[in-house]
């Protein structure tokens, strides 16, 4: 049920044409404790595991490609699948006492929702191997040290940390939605496509904003950008 609800939310966000930014967080000072173990027990065959894997890889890849800037606000624990979800966000923020743990090895499996691939991109293969093997524990200080998160917030209070995260996100989403969304799409293509395809995508995206309202307004205000 949780996975289906997540897919429904991703579809809703794909149709949110005015969106610029998004903060993902859990409830009651817990980001996510991962999969429901009672539900997992009923999925005992390799075919079951592969089906869940493909569903969540597809869902989180669609989430990662959303043309909005996403921030994972890690309050409390982000375990297992919850840890994988943080890697699908553009940025991660943690509260002082929070922790991210890839507990898959302890469950006798490996991350398979795209978490391994994205973690390597975020912190590199050596650090990823240390984290996934359990040799490194990602508390907020160490996560900041290795580049897993952008910032450790001041407060652990659920409401205050959300306010901090909202203020942090503002620096990235100032400006017209069509420009912010084009920037995010361009970055995604640069990460995922071959060079020529990515360059073509840049040209196509430029065509959606060149001569648009934001471009014309900026040109009318000043002949040259001098800040």
Write the layout of secondary structure elements.
Layout: H1 2-14, E1 21-24, H2 37-41, H3 46-64, E2 69-74, E3 77-79, H4 81-87, E4 91-94, E5 99-101, H5 115-123, H6 125-133, E6 138-139, H7 140-145, E7 151-152, H8 158-173, H9 177-192, H10 195-209, H11 213-221
Parallel strand pairs: 1-2, 2-4, 3-5, 4-7
Antiparallel strand pairs: 5-6
Helix pairs in contact: 1-3, 4-5, 5-6, 9-10
| Integer-rounded radius of gyration | 19 Å
Strand element count? 7
What about the largest sheet?
A: 4 strands, parallel
Number of helices: 11
**Mean pLDDT score:** 92
User: How do the SSEs run, as a string of H and E?
Assistant: HEHHEEHEEHHEHEHHHH
Class derived from helix and strand content: alpha/beta
Describe this structure in words.
The chain is α/β, with parallel strands linked by helices. It has eleven helices and seven strands.
């Amino acid at each position: 049920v949780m996975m289906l609800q997540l897919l429904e939310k991703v579809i809703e966000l794909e149709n949110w044409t005015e969106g610029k930014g998004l903060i993902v967080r859990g409830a009651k000072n817990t980001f996510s404790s991962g999969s429901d173990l009672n539900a997992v027990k009923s999925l005992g065959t390799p075919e079951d595991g592969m089906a869940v894997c493909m569903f969540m890889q597809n869902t989180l890849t669609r989430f990662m490609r959303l043309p909005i800037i996403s921030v994972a606000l890690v309050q409390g624990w982000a375990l297992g699948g919850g840890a994988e979800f943080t890697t699908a966000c553009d940025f991660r923020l943690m509260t002082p006492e929070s922790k991210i743990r890839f507990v898959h090895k302890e469950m006798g499996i490996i991350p398979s929702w795209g978490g391994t691939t994205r973690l390597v991109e975020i912190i590199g293969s050596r650090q990823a191997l240390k984290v996934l093997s359990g040799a490194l524990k990602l508390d907020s200080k160490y996560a900041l040290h290795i580049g897993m998160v952008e910032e450790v917030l001041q407060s652990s209070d659920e409401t205050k940390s959300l306010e901090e995260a909202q203020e942090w996100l503002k620096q990235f989403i100032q400006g017209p939605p069509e420009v912010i969304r084009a920037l995010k799409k361009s970055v995604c293509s640069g990460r995922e496509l071959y060079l020529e395809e990515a360059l073509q995508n840049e040209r196509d995206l430029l065509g959606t904003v060149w001569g648009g309202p934001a471009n014309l307004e900026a040109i009318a205000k000043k002949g040259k950008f001098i800040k």
